[in-house]
Amino acid sequence: MEKTLSNQEDLGGDQGMTDDIFDESYCEKDGPKPARRYVWRNIVLMSLLHLRALYRLWLIPAAKPVTLAWGKFLCFLLSALRITMKAHRIWSHRSYKTSLPLRIFLAIANSMAFQNDICEWARDHHVHHKFSEMDADPHNATRGFFFSHVGWLLVRKHSDVIEKGRKLDMADLKADKVVMFQRRFYKLSVVAMCFLFPTLVPWCFWGESLRNSIFLPTILRYVLMLNATWLVNSAAHMFGNQPYDLNINPRENRLVPFGALGEGFHNYHHTFPYDYSTSEFGWHYNFITAFIDLMCLLGLASDCKKVSKETILAQKICSGDGSHKSG
């Protein structure tokens, strides 16, 4: 079932993490910015991880085709489902509802992605929307491409990020037993799903070498997934057009790796964060939307929120950069 929202309904929603509206009352502190405090552990680990992945690219020709398909398509796609379909569209924005079996499956996929547990990811993403491109934004794009891409993980969080994150109402997430179970056993689930499972399947089931099984469907896949996610924070906030709202930084950029999954329609998403499709085009350019529609057909998802065409057109005319006229 799809619920179409009009202008009057757009600002409504359930309690908890569903308040996606930009907080215009927030003001950044005057004076010099505090010095960046580097997290050297993260710097060393991220550097080694990326260097190792680059160095092992030469293993690709020696790997079995089924191993490449396993790592680059199935494992990558499962990890992407966690980011786009659940942690993002459900646990951050409440843009549709899911059944318990689907929530469990997507929580497992979240552990395979290894980009913080559901509760922490949703909290940081909610702060990002509420204080986009300000000091309270965890990956503030006005601090440069590198910072918004990966640098924000290599330094201590700005005090405003921590302060605003603590004030969020996370009652709905804390009441979700699936979220809390995953949070409690997160480290164990990451070891199992992000590292052991992708490695053991090709090694045990079709005789791939252990070296190839470790570095291709596990390490390389993980590095590619990280950078695909980060490009939504960096490239999609800097490069592209703004047909829905030219007063905000996010852009429409279908060239980011998650473009086909719906995350490249970023100007739309920040304008209408509660839309389950994250774009106005439905499943036509959006694999995740098609997957959610399939789950609805199977009775595993429901109550998808969709912005009305009239509201979208009015928004384009009122605040867009005019690029929709040439589309």
Describe the structure.
With 327 residues, the chain is mainly alpha-helical. The protein has one domain (2-20, 37-326). Helices cover 50% and strands 4% of the residues. It has 13 helices and 4 strands. The protein has helices at residues 40-55, 65-88, 100-113, 118-130, 145-149, 159-166, 171-174, 177-184, 186-205, 210-233, 266-271, 287-297, 309-319, and strands at 2-5, 97-98, 301-302, 304-307. A two-stranded parallel ribbon has the order 1-4. Strands 2-3 form a two-stranded antiparallel ribbon. Helix 2 crosses helix 3. The longest helix has 24 residues, at 65-88.
Secondary-structure blueprint:
Elements: E1 2-5, H1 40-55, H2 65-88, E2 97-98, H3 100-113, H4 118-130, H5 145-149, H6 159-166, H7 171-174, H8 177-184, H9 186-205, H10 210-233, H11 266-271, H12 287-297, E3 301-302, E4 304-307, H13 309-319
Parallel strand pairs: 1-4
Antiparallel strand pairs: 2-3
Helix pairs in contact: 1-10, 2-3, 2-10, 3-9, 9-10
